[in-house]
Design goal:
The chain has ten helices and twelve strands. It is of the alpha/beta class. Strands 1-11-12-10-9 form a five-stranded mixed β-sheet, covered by helices on one side. Strands 2-8-7-6-5 form a five-stranded mixed β-sheet, sandwiched between helices. Bound molecules: pyridoxal-5'-phosphate.
Amino acid sequence: MSWEDNVRKVVPYVPGEQPKMDKLIKLNTNENPYPPAPGVQKAIEELKGNFSVLRKYPAPDCEALEVALSEYYHLPRTRIFTGVGSDDVLSMAFLAFFHGDKPVLFPDITYSFYDVWAEVYRIPYETIPLDENFDIVAEDYNRENGGIVIANPNAPTGIAKSAEWIEDFVKAHQDTVVIVDEAYVDFGGQSVISLTDKYENLLVVQTFSKSRALAGLRIGMAFGCEKIIGYLKDVKFSVNSYTMNTPSLILGVESIKDDEYFREKIEAVVKTREWSKERLKELGFAMTDSKSNFLFVSHPKMAAAEIAAKLREEGIIVRHFNKPRIDNYLRISVGTDEEMQILTDTLARIL
Ligand SMILES: *Cc1c(COP(=O)(O)O)cnc(C)c1O
């Protein structure tokens, strides 16, 4: 017997790298290329004059942030959960809702954290293959399950399902919790937050990291009926009460206040995404119809890993997943117009 026999052994999730090189064009982790709303910066200045707020514990119920979210989404606070990035929200949701012997289902190609949470919490799971166009086949989920997780738009494919499709899907699976991860929904998907009025078993998860350009603050949230959010809060407050720090709570509120800036920057990203799609098609790339802030592309003449390595030599970092079915694809985050111009010019040279 060794102490190591009792260790909860896991293979951790590997996030995209955050290299320390200067003058890098970083298109590997779907960060927003624009700064957060000006009000966020102003609030940081104000925090400097009031830094003793850090002496006290933060509000464990995330009050100010949840009130702001409640007004923005027209939902009572009892139907909103906040966490330290949607990774924390999803992790708590896996812990709270997937507690049986039947397998939790999610696509074979999706956010690669889902299977890691299932493993660490010892939750049985099965992956359901996407079809040859990387599309989700609803009928394939018609089997006994302990819950279902769908990212919409999906990652890393960027493919979005309509709100009607999601509603039919949730309707067909009312016996288990269905989590819809809407990390990228603001860039062109249809949110199903309003369906939580109707379906008790639906949990919709979103984040400030992508569309609100605040990945560094770590703010995520979930929406559902009062009962499902209550269960989620019970688990969260059984693990750690003070997860979200005071600056994040203050700055998160400022981001929500400036809706005009939010919409303007999303529009800019979408415009650049569509421009980039055309330019990459001209270069011979095949791609999915991404509705998110990244592109999922493949080239018939050069292997994705090779393209990624050559881009890297030129100071451009994109994401390559060394995984079955997608190892000849690259996930390229949508940067500024200038960054995407440099990217496509560089690709033209490499190819
Ligand atoms: C980025 C991402 C998340 C997590 O983002 P946070 O920064 O933890 O909020 C969750 N789901 C998907 C599909 C993502 O791409």
